[in-house]
Structures are given as structure tokens and as C-alpha cells.
Hints:
Oligomer: single chain
Number of strands: 49
Number of domains: 5
Helix content: under 10%
Strand order of the largest sheet: 14-13-29-30-32-26
Strand content: 35-45%
Amino acid sequence: MKRTIMRGIMICAAVFALLFTGWTVGKDAQAVVDTKPPEIKGLSAGVSNDDAKVYGAITSSEAGTFYYVVLPESYEIDMKIDYIRDVVAKKTAGVVGSAVGIGQVDGVNATSFEIKGLLPRTKYLLYAYMMDLYGNESSRTYVSRVFVTNTIAVSGTIEMVGEDHLAVDSTLKAAVNFDSEELGVVSYQWYRIALTEDQKKVEEPYDVTGGPDEDILQAYVDADDLALDGSIVEDGVLKKRKASAYYSEISLNNATPLEGEDSSTYKIKKGDIGSRLMVRVTASNYMGNLIGSTKTFVPKVMPEFEIPQLEVRTYAADRTLGAIALPENWSWVDKSIVPVADTNGYRALYTPEDAQYRKVIVRVDVPLERKMITENMLMVLDSAYTGQRITDNFEVADEGDVLKRGRDYVVTYKNNLNVGTAVVTFKGVGNYKGTVSSKYQITRRSVASLTYIYSGKVVYTGQRQYAGLIVENGDTLLKKNMDYTVTYKNNTKVGYATAVIRGFGNYSGKKNIKFAIVPKKASFYVADQLRSYVKLNFSKVNGISGYTLYFAKNADFTKGLQKFSTKKRSMILRGMDRGAYYYLRLRTFKVVNGKRIFSKYSQTKKIWIY
């Protein structure tokens, strides 16, 4: 009975606890809504230390957005939040010398902001209200103490209209865009300033030629002439081959004021040449000034002149522009250039006598008559037969200057492949004209000068052996019995054989090639092995004088190499180091005329000495 009552009490207590806990959690989970209006704790405004700008400052009770309007103290108004909201939305208060704006405040630190558009020497009030992050507005507008603006520096920019075409007698205009308002009387004063960097440039000539890169000129060569180059003439028939803004910061320091030049426009004079032009703009209601300047200097006046006309000359490879005289006040820019035919001229400098005029660089035509190509310019050499057409056995030179193929001449050939008389013909192009031919001889080539590829060793078979001979003349492979014949001597037995090559057709002379006929190689195996010796047996090879065994401690046979020869077909090795590997290989040999001729090596065997 007692247990039943106690259990009922515990269940009731647990249910009550759960009900109480659920009610508490539900209560804490409800959203907290902030409806408290924010407060502006501090609001002030004043001029900056440099007397050129006005700043405001604001602090608040919490984070949010503030809205403000600045009006002269003399402007009487019942300042309401709705008024501030309206003028900020319109971005103007509609009052001369007023300012409106918006900003953010974090609720901890003071927020500063710049105030623009105010009048100088005027008493002002700053009005503001704010809205927190929940959309609550402050309950009233706040107002700062009266502050007074000082004489504020005039601000804005000046555009120099007309500076893209600076020239004497042209007009510049100072187009001013003021940021300041209620300027009062606006005044102008023009200056000129001569910068060191400009004084160097004002003397630079006006170059209309495209620059010195175009002075490296070549005489024109007709495409049809190039197509002839390398052509081959056979039986009088021609077979054609396919032709394969500078700106520098400046100030009024060292600038010279121009007397009487006090309007917004200025007409450029000769005295301004080499100088930049500046204008200073002031406003009576503001301190300081605005400065505008041209980005470059006034250039010298362009002169009038006539381009020199030169007489016709014959091309000469050693005649430079320095040897060609120009009229007074003219000079070549680069006297070292050798002029060529059919060009658009060479750079020449015109220097006016009057210093106010600019130097000018133009191209002056140098008319040239092409030079006749003659036989005494040629050096053509006879050539031995190569198996290819002869195309490089000549040189063409004019007074020691080697002419260039394709630039000064093109070439055609006749009969320039086989032995006999060939003809090479040169046609002048570019700076040269005319046609001249020269004969030369293609002679038989000695077989001694050829390249031979062959086997230095062949294995004895009892039959006649050959060297596998290949004969080459440069890149040309010779044909047996057409370009040469070959006979053999002593090419059956072990020993030294000889291949005798004799020239034929386009080739002449004789060449002997020696090669070796070596005995067959032998094999071997280990017949018996104990700690004290190793017995080897060799395979039988007929017609040899003996066997030579090589053994060493490494596979390259360079460490501890020893060799032994025998006429027998077996060999016993003693005295080798125990606990070591040895490498062995075998060769056969035959004695011919007192000299051993060896076979190739057998396969290498590796043994362990235990």
C-alpha cells in the first residue's frame, strides 16, 4: 500500500516538472522585438586644419543609418524629421550653400563625414536624425552647435582646350569646371615655363619618313627573275623551278607671367616656342587657385621647303650617301648608307636658317642606273664530278664586294651534272643588269676521294668472302659496274683479303680496301670444378692454330685480367681466389704469316670459386 502511494507521488512530481520545463523553454524561444528609438549622443561640425574642408562627426546609442542637412544659421525653419528625409531623398535642400547626405554609424565609435558645397565665412547648423537596424527612427531631430566656415580653398579642374594642336597663332582656352559655389569674381593669369626636358626635345627634327628602320633598303627584284634562279637548261629548253603621351607635373615655380594675358583665352606667340603654357584661376570668395597647363611644349613653326632633285648616277657598291652632295641647309641623316636602285629615297635633314622654324627629316630620291654585270666580275672553277648538279663553284664580285644571289643576280645552268663542258649564266637583277655566261669543266672524280662503308671482319666459311662494300660520293650512292668495278684477292682463307675498286664512267683511279677473314668462334663449358682447380673443355673448330682464354673478376674484363693460350681443347685453371666470382670468355686464332688472327669472342660465363 505504501509503495503504491509513493509511486503515485513520484509520477505526479515528474509530470509537474516536465510541464514546468516545457513552459519555460517555450517562453525563452519567443522572438524579442526591439521597439526602442535610437539616440544620437553626439553631433558636431567644423572646418579642417588646412582651412579647405568641412567635416561633421556623429555618435549614437546603436548601429544604424543617419541622415543630415546643413543650413546657414540665418535660414529659419522648424526642422522636422520629414523635412530631412525629403531633402536627402532629393539630394538637395534647394538652398544656396547648403548640404545634405546619408551615412552609417556603428553605435560605438564616432563617425566622421565630409560636408561639401558650403559658403565661406558663414555660420551654419548641422541637423540630423537616425534609424536603427530594426527600422526605429529617433524620436526627434538633433542639432549641432553653430560653426563658422573660414575662407575655403577653391576647387575644380581646368581643361586646356586646343592643346592638341599647339602652334604659333593658335588659341588656347582655359575651360574651368568649378566644384565651389558662389565664386565671386573669377580672374585669369597666363604664364609660360621652359622645362629642361623640353629644351632638348624642341630641337628634335620633325620626322615624316617612318624612322631609320626603313633606311635598310634593297633594290627591287622582279619575281620572274627569281623564278629563273637555279633553272636547268637542257638542249636549249628552259625548265623553270618554283621560286622557293608624355606628361610632366609642373608648378608656377620658375614660370614667367605674361603681361596683359588675363582672359580665359590665349593666342600663342613665337616667344612661346619651346615652353609650356600655364593658366592660374582665382575666385574672390575663395582662397588659393586652380592651375592648368599644357601637357607638352609649343613646337617650332613648320618651314616651307623644296625637296632636292638629284642627277642620275650609276650604281656603285662602294659609293655611300656621303659622296652625294646636297644643296645648302640639307644633310644626309646617315652618310654611311650605300644607295640602291628603285627605292623611295633616303632620309635627309633640312635645317632652316631662322631658329623659330623646325628642322624636318624627309626622304630624298637618289636616282640610280643599274650597273652592267660583266665577265670580269665572275670567278667560275672547274669541278670534279659529285653525282649532283654543280651549283656552287662560282663567285660574283664587284670591286671586291661579293654579290648576293637573288639580290644582285640570278643563275641558270646547262650540262652541269655529268663529266664534260658545263655552262653557267648570270643575269643581273636589283642593282645590276645584263647577262653573261661562263664555261667550266666537270672532271672525273678519283675513287680515292670517295667514302667506303664495308665489313672489317668476316667469318671464314671455306667459300669466297666479300666485304659488303658500299661506295658514296657525298650524298650520292655509287652503282657497281656503272660507276666503279671491284675485284677481290685472297678472299677465301683465314687472313687478310683485298678489294680492288676501279673508277668507271664519271670516276677514275684505283682504291684498295683490306679486310680480315677470321676463324670461327668456339664455345666452352666447365667439365669439372673443385676448390683447387677448374677444368674447361672447348668445342672443336677446324683449321685453327689454337684457343685463347680470358678471365677476370668483373664483366668488363678490366679487373685482374689474365689470358692463356693453348692448342688443346681443354684447360685447367688453378690459383684463383676462393669465395669470389670469375668471368670467362674464349677466342680461337690462326697464325698467318707469323701473326695471330683472332675470331670473335664466345659467350661470357660466370663461375663461383668456393
